[in-house]
Amino acid sequence: MLCFEHLVTPLLIGKSLKVSFFNPFRRARVERDEGEIVIQVKWGRERFNIPIPSPSLTPLSTLLATLSSQTSLPLDQLKLIYKGAVLKDPSLTISSYGIEDGSTLVLVGKGGPVPSAPPSSSSVAKPNGVGVKKNKQPETDQESVLVSWISNLVESVLNPLIPSIVTFISQTDPNATNKPKHIPPFEVLQKEHARLSELLLKGLLDLDGVQIPQSDWTNARNERKLGVKKIQEQLNRVDAAWGERKRLVG
């Protein structure tokens, strides 16, 4: 006759092994290895605080696999953005990307849907023309053509959003000098923050997908780098203002 303990023990062991495999970072919460760092990954309105035991040894692929499990997004459609740049090589370690304790990364699903605009009943400004499919990169042997196309791509991302960004900051930043008389509810502002963030991140992904056909096309590379900087600056403004707003209700 089998003992109850003999039946339960293998099940518990199997379960613990499954959890450890599902999330390799979960064990770090218990062991608290020396040299561990904790990073934050933003995914829409979700926030994941993930401890990484050995950032100099842990490859990016391990972090991506964990995020894929936690978000149910396909692994091959995940992209992580850090300081405006897409982390492309999953074989490189976390520390090789300059990621440190307290760093914030942004997770996006490649080709995923962009959040819709908030209800029209709110006073949050909505840009016109956002979400229109961008023009295909031209096939050209002239660098000036590509430089002009990249510049237009950046403008097509920022120009429709700037009015909404200015309005959003005036409604969320307590230090804003142009604060309106009516402030939308917290939930409306939360949706607007998610929408603006996703659209700006989509712009960063579009720039990341730009192909520079010639290695000596430095002007095109610089134009793309400048575009990334411009979009990242607006994303930082939006996130900073929203952070101030959340502290008021924290």
From TrEMBL:
PROSITE patterns: BAG, UBIQUITIN_2
Ubiquitin-like domain: residues covered: 53-110
InterPro entries from the UniProt entry: BAG_chaperone_regulator (IPR039773), BAG_dom_sf (IPR036533), BAG_domain (IPR003103), Ubiquitin-like_dom (IPR000626), Ubiquitin-like_domsf (IPR029071)
All residue ranges annotated as the BAG domain in the record: 187-242
Annotated region described as Disordered, given as residue ranges: 112-137
Keyword Chaperone: yes
GO molecular function: adenyl-nucleotide exchange factor activity; protein-folding chaperone binding
Pfam families with a match to the protein in the record: BAG, ubiquitin
Protein name: Uncharacterized protein
